[in-house]
Write a structure and sequence with these properties.
Layout (H helix, E strand, L loop, with lengths): L2 H11 L3 H14 L6 E2 L10 E7 L2 E8 L7 H5 L2
Length: 79
């Protein structure tokens, strides 16, 4: 089993969404999003984490993360 398969198996079994979002945020950090900040919780409008990049003191890029275990992620975004 590859490391990504093992990770997916763990994530698929996680039922506590706050723990799931924490693990997913840590995974994104490992994938190079070193300024990622957890944002989620209850009533977070679907935003689970953000990463902002500043250049010369000005916000130039904002990445919004939404993590889900739902098979239809588009329906979650529309909630």
């Amino acid at each position: 089993m590859s490391s990504i398969d093992l990770l997916m198996a763990v994530l698929e079994k996680e039922t506590d969404f706050l723990k799931f979002e924490k693990v997913a945020t840590e995974v994104m950090y490992e994938f190079g999003y070193h300024n990622i900040v957890p944002f989620g919780g209850y009533k977070d409008k679907g935003i689970d984490a953000v990463e902002e990049k500043f250049f010369e003191g000005e916000l130039k890029e904002k990445v919004i993360f939404q993590f889900t275990t739902e098979s239809n992620s588009i329906s979650k975004a529309l909630k």
